[in-house]
Amino acid sequence: MGLLQRLPWSLYRQIKEGFPVIDITWGERLRRALTELGPTFIKMGQVLSTRSDIVGPSIARELSLLQDHVAPLPFEEIAKVVEDALKKPIESAFAQFDLEPVAAGSLSQVHKAILPNGTPVAVKVKRAGIDRIISSDIELMRTIATWLEERPEISFLKPVGIVNEFARSIKRELNFSIEARSIQLFRKNMLNQKNVFIPRVFKSYSTPEVLTMDWVDGVRIDQYDQYEARNCDRKTIAQLGCEILCKMICEDRLFHADPHPGNIFITYNNQIAFLDLGMAGSLDSQDVMLMTNLLMAIFQQNVYECTQAVLALCSRPDFKDVKALERELSDFITFESYLIISQGQVGKGIERAIDILRNYGLELESRFTLLLKALATIESVGRELDPEIDFVSIIQPYLERFILSRYELPNIRRELTQQFNSLWRFFIEFPDNLRNITSQMRSGELKIHVHHEYLEQLANIIDKSSNRISISLITAALIVGSSVLVTTSSATKNLGTIGFALAGILGIYLIISILFSKRL
């Protein structure tokens, strides 16, 4: 069922009032509340776990523990979805289709099947009615987010923006045609990597609701007791996983956004397979260059370049406190980064840098948070396999090769062409733009918006001063008028007394307001 029937009070109560456990962190309260609210909110928490620049490292780590295990749907419902999507009975589409799923999540479940030609496949089937449920849950999330946006202690998190980002992400995840395209791109990029297996997509058995791909004969990368039987070495697999993700980022510019142990399998003879490739991030060459600049600046302990790279990643040209940020980054690079780098712990360095950004109200763009999360996750997976792994020595050659590739003739030619096209477009459009401006000037429609940083504050001061002057004039008029009344006949003396009382009250109010504002 949808969550529209559940009030935001359920979430609010769990967070504010707490749980029976005495020693519990805020992050754990949030995780338990999201778990109680259901699968869609669990997905939301999983998205937030990638935004440590917003929620902080401790809450992000807690939210990364969220699991969306749900009871599988009855086979009859799954069979109906498959038959409606493929437009044929399930018996004629597949030679065999297992009744029990091998995995069940909040959005879909996976069944093992065999094609008529004998090929074993994994069939991912979207849960019936999930689109309607997700839509209603997102509307509820927007209601909660709008409510939270009005609370000063939470509004800095930009809850409405987070919900909108989540809505875009989950709508892509619900369309299996997008995931199929993503898998095909990954497979193309890994064609020459014999130690990486990317499953094929069977297009004639795939639709937006059903995704059919190669069955992966493997086990999770953290099932260490299976390594010997599959002729795999933990150190080799750790090195391979880290290298492949670095290749995805620096060379392919298409990377797995969630490389946790459940999404990486080992097969045989030191080969790994990546699953759930719908969770992907894409970058352009400029994005990779920005990230390269940041990491290389940290590796080389260059404070100025590190500051510039951070500001470029955050897209905050209006940021004013640059000197203070530069001083804190200088302390980080001088006293902390050397120790972190010497131990090869890129993830720890990333977490500390993000913590500095949060202190200054800076927020990374979502594609960069996905990238940093992926780097930190794969390093963590590699370190579980091989505690002595040095991730710095793995990623640095890829960064250096990327920098050098910028100066290769084809890349220089392509960049010059792009810059020339941009400049040419500017000159072509300049006469029309100038004509529009002069036309608006002649018709009096040209508007120039000027924002003065302290103008609003000045307006508030003038408004407050004018109110005080008005009260002062009223008070003075009451005193003068009452003075006249008390000197006349006894019938009007009482009105004069009332006037003096009102004048006294207004005068006391005026004095108190001035004293409390600490301004004369």
Structural features, described:
The chain is an alpha+beta fold and 520 residues long. The protein has 21 helices and 11 strands. The strands form 3 sheets. Strands 1, 2, 3, 4 and 6 form a 5-stranded antiparallel β-sheet that branches. A 4-stranded mixed β-sheet has the order 5-10-9-7, with helices on one face. A two-stranded antiparallel sheet has the order 8-11. 62% of the residues lie in helices and 8% in strands. A hairpin with a 5-residue loop joins strand 9 (264-266) and strand 10. Helix 13 crosses helix 18 (391-405). The chain folds into 4 domains: 9-68 and 136-167, no CATH class; 69-135 and 168-215, Phosphorylase Kinase, domain 1 (2-Layer Sandwich), CATH 3.30.200.20; 224-406, no CATH class; 455-517.
Name the features.
520 residues; Phosphorylase Kinase, domain 1; 21 helices; 62% helix; five-stranded antiparallel beta sheet; alpha+beta; disordered N terminus; elongated
Structure at a glance:
This protein has 520 residues and is α+β, with helices and mostly antiparallel strands. It is 62% helix and 8% strand.
Layout of strands and helices, then pairs:
Blueprint: H1 9-17, H2 26-37, H3 39-48, H4 52-55, H5 57-63, H6 75-86, H7 90-93, E1 96-97, E2 103-104, E3 108-114, E4 120-126, H8 130-149, H9 152-155, H10 159-174, H11 176-189, E5 196-197, E6 210-214, E7 219-220, H12 234-252, E8 254-256, E9 264-266, E10 272-274, E11 280-282, H13 285-299, H14 303-314, H15 322-342, H16 346-359, H17 366-385, H18 391-405, H19 409-443, H20 455-486, H21 490-517
Parallel strand pairs: 5-10
Antiparallel strand pairs: 1-3, 2-3, 3-4, 4-6, 7-9, 8-11, 9-10
